[in-house]
Amino acid sequence: xxxxxxxxxxxxxxxxxxxxxxxxxxxxxxxxxxxxxxxxxxxxxxxxxxxxxxxxxxxxxxxxxxxxxxxxxxxxxxxxxxxxxxxxxxxxxxxxxxxxxxxxxxxxxxxxxxxxxxxxxxxxxxxxxxxxxxxxxxxxx
Length: 141
Prior knowledge:
alpha+beta; 3 strands; 35% helix
């Protein structure tokens, strides 16, 4: 069984991205009620040619941005201009894909050494002795 080819950091396929411009709140004054400056960027993850493990990580990272049909929806309303919001949405999508491209490090389970275990039990014993001294003194009859 051969492994899938690694993800190459090539530009995104424009056929998989669709943009929709909507009216956005935020800065812009009365202009926001007239002009569609907000961007909804839709990336078709199902049709993307990414390794399956990367797709799984991207689905997890996308969270609530993942639609029922398997597309990633990025909304950008931060800026006053359509072009700035478009660049913001694309940058956020790119960073999401780059994050998904990083395979998580394999954790090698370890155990504490015998000396570390001894230090821990010695510390617990000495702390217990300090706490035992806090009680009322015993009466000597």
